Amino acid sequence: MAAMSHQIDQVLIPRRRIARRVRHLAAQITLDHQQSGAEITLVPILTGAMIFCADLMRRLSMRLKMGLLTVSSYPGSSVRSQGPALLAQQLGELTGRHVLIVDDILDSGGTLGLVQGLVAELKPASLRTCVLLRKQRALQRTVKADYVGFDIPDVFVAGYGLDYDNYYRNLPDIVTLRPMMAREAQQP
Ligand code: IMP
Ligand code: MG
């Protein structure tokens, strides 16, 4: 545990703020889907969206099913996206259903672009996207999210499901890492 915590730079979003925002997002999602009157299918993009989705779905009272997708764009200890790769899918039947894609963070938009395209091909009744974090970068604007938890600066973050080299996902807060860890990100 000591080895993990000494590499954290600072807490960017503490757990209480996350919890409050998740409650608000869930209320908004509930309201928006009430009109359609139907049940939904949640599609968290694994592994990063695991914790966020687990908290969010417990705040949704409508009937729902789950579909799973695993996408990776930061293999190993990379802090730069290598482009999204679809590793596994277990989506179930999405045709004619109201689908909500859930992801941890919208950065370049490569991941969500890939997943939105893939799900759209299955002809859902509606398709919405919810992300906990959105990095402020110009490129991502071509890919839209209907629900955004927090806009954050273009820094590498970990915790609450987000990883560095598959570590730190279990941190309850969203943190930035020491420059030593983010060395690669600072190169031009
Ligand atoms: P995009 O494809 O560039 O939009 O990146 C989105 C994906 O990359 C997310 O689903 C995350 O899993 C991962 N990602 C992007 N930025 C970070 C970060 O700062 N920390 C950890 N993972 C990140
Ligand atoms: Mg991810």
Can you tell me about this structure?
With 188 residues, the protein is α/β, with parallel strands linked by helices. It has a domain at 9-27 and 39-73 and 83-153: 3-Layer(aba) Sandwich (Rossmann fold). The protein is built from 4 helices and 10 strands. The protein has helices spanning 2-5, 15-34, 50-57, 110-120; strands at 8-13, 40-46, 64-66, 68-72, 85-90, 98-106, 126-135, 147-152, 157-158, 174-177. The strands form 2 sheets. Strands 2, 3, 4, 5, 6, 7 and 8 form a 7-stranded mixed sheet that branches. Strand 2, helix 3 and strand 3 (64-66) form a beta-alpha-beta unit. The longest helix has 20 residues, at 15-34. Mean pLDDT is 88; it is low at 1-5. The protein binds inosinic acid (IMP) and magnesium ion. Magnesium ion binds next to strand 6. The site of inosinic acid has 20 residues, from strand 6, helix 4 and strand 9.
What would the keywords be for this entry?
single chain; 188 residues; seven-stranded mixed beta sheet; globular; binds inosinic acid; binds magnesium ion
Task: Explain briefly what this protein structure is.
With about 190 residues, the chain is of the alpha/beta class.
Explain the layout of strands and helices.
Layout (H helix, E strand, L loop, with lengths): L1 H4 L2 E6 L1 H20 L5 E7 L3 H8 L6 E3 L1 E5 L12 E6 L7 E9 L3 H11 L5 E10 L11 E6 L4 E2 L15 E4 L11
Parallel strand pairs: 2-3, 2-4, 2-6, 6-7, 7-8
Antiparallel strand pairs: 1-10, 4-5, 9-10
Bound molecules: inosinic acid and magnesium ion.
Magnesium ion (MG) binds next to strand 6.
